[in-house]
Amino acid sequence: AITIHGRTAQQGYSKPADWDLIQKVVQEGYEEGFGDIPVVGNGDILTHYEATRRIQESSVDSVMVG
Of 15, 19, 52, 53, which one's alpha carbon is 20 to 30 angstroms from that of 59? Predict the structure, then answer.
């Protein structure tokens, strides 16, 4: 699996995680033939509601909470 955090270390918590970027990684992975590698999205997930929404919207295989 690969974990993608939607912001850089330099950004810290100064802006929201970029879930459009995370979704793009998932889509391009499938297009390039790497769809068998699970992608875990990370950033701004504090509740199970947010986790469910991000999984549905971005097509990640899983999310990290916290």
Answer: 15
